[in-house]
Amino acid sequence: MKELLKLYENKEPEIVFNWKDSETEAEGWTVINSLRGGAAGGGTRMRKGLDQNEVLSLAKTMEVKFTVSGPPIGGAKSGINFDPADPRKKGVLERWYKAVSPLLKSYYGTGGDLNVDEINEVIPITEDCGVWHPQEGVFNGHFQPTEADKINRIGQLRQGVIKVLENTHFSPDVTRKYTVADMITGYGVAEAVHHYYSIYGGDIDGKKAIVQGFGNVGSAAAYYLAQMGAKIVGIIDRAGGLINEEGFSFEEVKDMFLNKKGNTLNHKDMMPFEEINEKIWKLDAEIFAPCAASRLISKDQITSLIDRKLEVISCGANVPFADKEIFFGPIMEYTDERVSLIPDFISNCGMARVFAYFMERRVQMTDEAIFNDTSMTIKNAIQNTFDNNSSKTNISKTAFEVALKQLV
């Protein structure tokens, strides 16, 4: 696996598009790792301090993810080095998408990512640039449909991603109009834990869980884990967190979800960050869902959880460990050798899978069909890994091997 990984990591990307804004200090990159299958896909993120290397590593991560989620295309990513809180953000995005629109028409598909919203920013701005849909390049480059078929599938995709959830099993509150895009990634993170126990043995009901991050992904993961009967004992977010060693009830977790302040945890009993960060790694928990930013978890933190009761990690964040390597650094390897580590490209593939699902010919548009499709995709990937290695350790190593054999 190490040899395959080295070959894959060291291979130069096919296309690097570099842009410097004419009106601000913003700089952006689209990195297309390869045009496997005639196209490439990956979202657009914005943060101050972002560089080309970060975009490259994310593009390579996307390509691995597509081996699980489909379609069988290359990985790509766009990143803009700019403060998303700056009032000039909208103008920066408008000029960025205008510059990158020829790629989006031909062979590159994008979406929302860190600090860039799919529904309120990406779709309307790309439409103004003459792009039918941010995934149009994937249709043209990979599927090469007839014009009529393209119109039908783009309509399906447009409708599906912003579809308001009507089923009370999937939505925490149907009156608040949560969409597929709001919930699907966190749902996949929770489903990965559910399928892990059903395939490797055990039962999620009554297991204690820690969730890191309470944004879109973490809050939804906590909600669905609690719905399955897991006991959420700790939540750590940017500003602070909560601990209940007996576990919060499903109703309490649901209330936390519904009372988020924007995309952060909001609770009267919140501990300050320094205090929760000191205490949470000393809790007894079988399940850990890291759903915050990339590269945060130190070796000491993960060792502390492993030395207690940790059984399985389901990654909501891409590369959650504080390794500098693109994929499989020493902290990740150390963790993988000791507990069951479901890699990000399986556990957080929900949104990528939703895109792939809606790109297929006429699919069912019900909540059940969409969510069950993501669940089965994750189940099949975990089953495939188990079929190659039935041990509860080295799951990530095995999953990477399976994926990289398709790419190298």
Question: Can you give a write-up of this model?
Answer:
47% of the residues lie in helices and 15% in strands. The chain is of the alpha/beta class and 408 residues long. A seven-stranded mixed beta sheet has the order 10-9-8-7-11-12-13. Strands 1, 2, 3, 4, 5 and 6 form a six-stranded mixed beta sheet that branches. Helix 11 links the parallel strand 11 (287-290) and strand 12. Helix 6 runs antiparallel to helix 14 (350-359), helix 14 packs across helix 15 (367-388) and helix 15 (367-388) crosses helix 16.
Estimate the helix proportion, in percent: 40-55%
- Sheet with the most strands: spatial strand order: 10-9-8-7-11-12-13
User: Helices and strands: which structural class?
Assistant: alpha/beta
Q: Over all CA atoms, what is the radius of gyration?
A: 20 Å
Helix and strand element order: HEEEEHEHEHHHHEHEEHEHEHEHEHHHH
The biggest sheet amounts to: 7 strands, mixed
Q: Please tally the β strands and state the result.
A: 13
Number of helices: 16
Poorly predicted residue ranges: none
Estimate the global geometry from the Cα principal axes.
Answer: globular
C-alpha termini separation = 11 Å
Estimate what percentage of residues fall within beta strands.
Answer: 5-15%
Q: Name the average pLDDT.
A: 95
